[in-house]
Write a structure and sequence with these properties.
Structural class: alpha+beta
Number of helices: 19
Shape: elongated
Distance between the termini: 152 Å
Radius of gyration: 51 Å
Length: 811
């Protein structure tokens, strides 16, 4: 081979752009470009030597020209010894000029028209790297999810493995640009990344890029882009190698998994049907659809079971949730609106049998009854609608409707399967809320049926009571109030709170209210009444199952107001103190010493007595009115006191005042029941009462009759003179004979005539029927016959026997 041919071989080797090396002086590895090339004649002598061969071995052309090739080979293999012809390929160790050896792999070929051979050689490890790299490149090129593209410095595609299946159905030819394949904006974004790699040499690894194919702009693909700069042997940029991995399916699967998890986390936290439906709709937008509505059977809103319906017509569905709420919905689609009658479409039948179905626009138009209703019930620009039935525990509660509009992608089978799972989770959550609504409604109905009338009007006070059930899904908690009319125009006021929730708490509340009413009729002092009620609670706890002993208990405030003395006696069993609003508008918390809750026995209660001016308002309440989240109860009590001072005006009705207070003080989603009892006090005028001290002398009986006669004559009650004289005679006689001084007679006129005789004895009078031979024992029996009703109440160190007679209004 002449020198020109050798130069061509040199250039050919350099054009490969491969840098190889051998072991040079001192063990260093000198770099060289291309493949080492030599020409060997038919005698096996070196006839030509390239510069790359000199780089590889360190020998220059003059040193090896004419020498046998065998002299350059160290440790010639046995299979090559004695062989006269040059083998086509193999692996040998060559001597380096410095004395070291180099392991090379060679290949030979005969020069056309000559007896000479061209020998090409390269270090063996470079050959192995090249083979592995070629195998790797072939493997990568065979992956349909990995697209390899080589771009030149103008970012024109030089070579790629892209096929019509990997892109948009169109082959990618060398010479194309990204803008020929991708939408313009997406192509600019990707080229900006590649240009940065080309200019800086800094590779990009797994950069997420969302792109759309130019001929299918509606569908977005997620690409993972990795790019490296290509350089020639001199380190100059020659282009960019880019790897595009289609992550669309993986990211879609991740989004679907994330969506299913979010549904499980966010839906079902509320026991309100509408709130649960809205949570479900909010989760699905925009992750699953552009618009979502949740339609529920009307019965579900009330907690009832919906009737099974098949076919078209009026399905009695109502829109419970829309998302997004600010979207431009069709005119007929609004929260709370009824879904219009639907035609008997085959897809509707499939949905009613529990299948999740996808409607095209034309199918949905046919479902809602034709083109005339499109503007009313079909959102603008909708191209696909998915309907998933909400089916739980054998009931079809309604359906989720997902709308996709504009350039959004059509629904896939995977998304249908996902929606089926989401609808199942959502249906269970909505059914739980429905069942809670039913039970809560029953508990509230029971609670309210056990409460007294909201308003009462007695000589002692006018009252207004309010009960507000919980709004946070916790159930009723047995709060109650009561206003009990007592003899002698007195009025008992009660507020209580039972431990526990739901129907058991309401039932316990009913038993306690009945017990307190019974004890109130015995006219016990407040502390004594609470003591006996605590004994009852202890018995109820003993009757309860062993694991609920600690759940039986209550707090209670019991107060008795006497409009004659204008005094109010009260005692508390662990209950918040009442608030007093005086006629001048000032408000304060009554300083009362609370005793233990009713579940605790063996500890005393203390009665507190205060004076009340006529027109004062006494407010009894439960802690749900002053507890607001994490606020301190003292802050809540302060707010209540301030609100009462501002609201309780003499010219304002109590029921109006109470409603305003509840609206201001109780959150919509209060976690506890709240009750409020307002009592505006009255007083019996002084001219309607008369009282006398009774001497401890039997002759005082006649004096008492005289006092009674004069007073009834003054009041114009002459028609009651005879019966009242008999009643007074018997009661005063008993007080003198069986009681202890001091004793007192009191007459009260206020719609009825009340006669009271009080003495210092605690002996309980007993009604009995006297025999014909008995000289006594007819006193109380006579009183019982003459009076409308009579009774006895005990106070501290005294008792009072009273009778009551009606006063006929003048005609």
């Amino acid at each position: 081979m002449d020198s020109a041919n050798m130069e061509n071989a040199d250039s050919a080797g350099a054009s490969q752009g491969t840098s190889v090396s051998g072991a040079g002086p001192g063990g260093r590895t000198p770099a060289f470009d291309g493949l080492a090339a030599a020409v060997v004649d038919d005698r096996g002598a070196v006839a030509g030597w390239t510069g790359t061969a000199e780089d590889l071995t360190g020998f220059c052309a003059e040193e090896v020209h004419g020498r046998p090739v065998r002299e350059l080979v160290a440790d010639l293999p046995d299979d090559l010894r004695g062989v006269r012809h040059v083998p086509t390929s193999g692996r040998v160790r060559l001597w380096h000029r410095c004395g070291n050896t180099i392991d090379v792999t060679f290949r030979t070929t005969r020069v056309n028209g000559s007896a000479k051979f061209l020998v090409l050689a390269a270090p063996t490890h470079y050959v192995a790297d090249h083979q592995h790299g070629a195998a790797l490149l072939r493997a990568l090129s065979a992956q349909n999810r990995i697209t390899i593209a080589l771009h030149d410095t103008d970012l024109t595609t030089v070579q790629t493995n892209a096929t019509p299946d990997t892109l948009d159905g169109r082959p990618v030819q060398p010479g194309t640009r990204l803008s020929d394949v991708l939408c313009a904006e997406d192509a600019e974004n990707v080229e900006a990344v590649l240009r940065q790699v080309l200019e800086t040499g800094v590779p990009v690894l797994r950069r997420n890029q969302h792109v759309s194919w130019r001929h299918h702009p509606a569908r977005r693909h997620a690409l993972s882009l990795s790019a490296f700069r290509l350089e020639n042997a001199r380190g100059r940029p020659t282009g960019v190698a880019a790897l595009y991995i289609d992550d669309t399916d993986r990211l879609r699967a991740r989004r679907q998994l994330d969506l299913a998890r979010e549904v499980a986390e966010r839906v079902g936290g509320s026991l309100d049907v509408v709130r649960t439906a809205q949570d479900l709709a909010d989760v699905l937008v925009p992750a699953f659809g552009d618009l979502v509505s949740v339609n529920l059977a009307q019965a579900v809103f009330d907690g009832d079971e919906p009737a099974e319906r098949l076919g078209g017509g009026d399905l009695h569905l109502r829109t419970a949730a829309l998302a997004p709420a600010n979207a431009a919905w069709a005119a007929g689609i609004k929260l709370g609106n009824l879904v219009p009658p639907l035609s008997d479409h085959p897809l509707l039948r499939s949905s009613q049998h529990g299948e999740t179905v996808v409607y095209g626009r034309d199918d949905f138009v046919a479902l809602i009854g034709g083109p005339q209703l499109v503007e009313q019930f079909l959102p603008h620009d909708v191209h696909a609608v998915m309907v998933a039935p909400l089916h739980a525990r054998g009931l079809t509660l309604g359906a989720i409707v997902v709308w996709r509009t504009g350039l959004s992608e059509p629904f896939t089978e995977d998304e249908v399967d996902l929606m089926r799972q989401i609808a199942s989770l959502g249906a269970l959550a909505i059914d739980n809320a429905r069942r809670y609504t039913r039970e809560h409604r029953a508990a509230v109905a029971l609670q309210q049926s056990l409460l007294p009338p909201a308003t009462t009007d007695t000589p002692a006070a006018e009252t207004a009571g309010f009960y507000l059930p919980t709004g946070g899904g916790a159930g009723t908690s047995g709060d109650w109030y009561d206003a009990i009319a007592l003899p002698s125009f007195r009025l008992a006021l009660v507020a209580g709170d039972v431990i526990g929730r739901g129907i058991p708490a309401s039932a316990t509340m009913g038993r306690l209210r009945t017990a307190i009413q019974t004890l109130a009729d015995l006219e016990l002092e407040p502390d004594e009444l609470l003591t006996r009620t605590a004994d009852l609670v202890q018995r109820l706890a003993a009757e309860a199952p062993s694991d609920t002993h600690d759940l039986v208990g209550a707090t209670c405030l019991y107060a008795v107001y006497d409009p004659v003395t204008r005094r109010c006696a009260m005692a508390s069993a662990g209950h918040p103190p009442p608030v007093l609003v005086r006629p001048d508008g000032t408000a304060e918390t009554v300083d009362i010493l609370p005793g233990p809750p009713l579940a605790v026995c063996g500890m005393p209660y203390e009665t507190t007595t205060i004076d009340l001016e006529p027109g004062s308002v006494l407010a009894l309440y439960t802690d749900g009115l002053v507890h607001r989240g994490a606020d301190d109860i003292d802050d809540g009590l302060r707010r209540l006191t301030d609100a009462l001072a501002a609201s309780c005006r003499p010219d304002r009705a109590l029921d109006e005042t109470g409603r305003a207070l509840l609206a201001d003080l109780v959150d919509e989603a209060s976690r506890d029941d709240a009750t409020l009892l307002l009592a505006r006090t009255r007083a019996v005028p002084g001219e309607d009462t008369a009282h006398w001290q009774i001497p401890a002398d039997p002759a005082a009986v006649s004096e008492a009759r005289e006092w009674t006669t004069r007073q009834l004559t003054t009041w114009g009650l002459d028609d009651l003179l005879f019966t009242t004289q008999l009643i007074v005679s018997e009661l005063v006689t008993n007080a003198i004979r069986y009681g202890r001084p001091p004793a007192e007679l009191r007459l009260i006129r206020h719609g009825v005539l009340v006669c009271e005789v009080t003495d210092s004895s605690s002996t309980q009078p007993r009604l009995r029927r006297a025999r014909t031979t008995d000289e006594g024992g007819r006193g109380l029996f006579l009183v019982a016959q003459l009076a409308d009703r009579w009774g006895c109440r005990h106070g501290q160190n005294h008792k009072t026997i009273w009778s009551e007679q009606p006063i006929e209004c003048p005609r």
